[in-house]
Specification:
With 280 residues, the protein is an alpha/beta fold. It has a 6-stranded parallel sheet, sandwiched between helices. Strand 5, helix 8 and strand 6 form a beta-alpha-beta unit. The radius of gyration is 19 Å and the shape is globular. It binds adenosine monophosphate. The site of adenosine monophosphate has 17 residues, from helix 2 and strand 5.
């Protein structure tokens, strides 16, 4: 495994491989790696000849400065895990490499970004699109792997690829969970002990909402889940939405013939957790 810090170094390393028609897979991350990230690496290694992983805590996607400051960073452990997972290249740039000057690009994702994460984290998806498009420019991957854990982000990335007419296949990967059902997340490390114990309720309530589908109205299900989450000591729901899984627009009834999903964001103490579930 080679760890490279500049776009030029990565270009020089990848060009000969691309020239001899090796397929290049890419997994962008912000580090503090867990089995969720490693599952993306495994999918990448299955589908592509070469696996490139980036680690970059992207400041432009943090709407909350304290969230950026406290974001976990553990470079040695991360490199160890990526080496064990047989990654070929790790791109580990400094801020100046990715943002030699301010990135003033503004993306318009329309209604996709006006709900849920987009509505509650102003500028977040613009920052995501800025960094992912820059990384795609550098890596020029054939395929890029993203977790369904970040359901709306996946939709935004797919839209960005269409808008910019990029030649990269976006491969969705299922959410990897802790044994108690909590979706793995780098932020789980920041949870207070008691909040971590209670956090399995998020998955339990998403499953409960599946049980309630068609038995109670969308409004009733939303009310039940939000109240149940807020009843947990130290938890506060930011949103729980039942949406069209393609457009991410909120649904008001079960009868619409569209794929459906529920997405949730909850504060467990000061730590914000997200999760989702698809309704079949
Ligand atoms: P992050 O480091 O949080 O920016 O995540 C990097 C990538 O890993 C994104 O595509 C995430 O959706 C994905 N990811 C994060 N957590 C999980 C998980 N529990 N299961 C699967 N993929 C995940």
């Amino acid at each position: 495994m080679k760890t490279l810090a500049t776009a030029q170094q990565l270009n020089e390393a990848l060009k000969p491989l691309r020239d001899c028609k090796k397929s290049i897979g890419f997994v962008p991350t912000m580090g503090a790696l867990h089995q969720g990230h490693i599952s993306l690496v495994k999918a990448c290694r299955n589908k592509c000849d070469i696996c490139v992983v980036s680690i970059f805590v992207n400041p432009t996607q943090f709407n909350d400065k304290s969230d950026l400051d406290k974001y976990p960073r553990m470079p040695e452990k991360d490199l160890q895990k990526l080496g064990d997972a047989k990654v070929d290249f790790v791109f580990y740039p400094e801020i100046e490499e990715m943002y030699p000057e301010e990135d003033a690009r503004v993306f318009d994702f329309g209604e996709l970004e006006q709900v849920m994460e987009g509505a509650h984290r102003p500028g977040h998806f613009n920052g995501v699109a800025q960094i992912v498009s820059k990384l795609f420019d550098i890596v020029l991957p054939d395929m890029a792997f993203f977790g369904e854990k970040d359901f709306q982000q996946l939709a935004i990335i797919k839209r960005m690829v269409q808008m910019l007419n990029l030649n990269v296949e976006i491969v969705p990967c299922e959410t990897i969970r802790e044994p108690d059902g909590l979706a793995m997340s780098s932020r789980n490390l920041l949870l207070q002990k008691s909040d971590r114990v209670h956090a399995s309720v998020i998955r339990e309530l998403l499953l409960k909402s599946v049980e309630m589908k068609n038995k109670a109205s969308v409004v009733e299900v939303k009310k039940y889940i939000v109240e149940a989450l807020n009843d947990v000591d130290n938890f506060k729901t930011e949103y729980f939405e039942i949406v069209n899984a393609d457009t991410l627009q909120p649904l008001n009834s079960w009868t619409e013939d569209v794929p459906k999903a529920a997405c949730v964001a909850v504060f467990a103490g000061r730590i914000r957790l997200i999760d989702n579930i698809r309704y079949s």
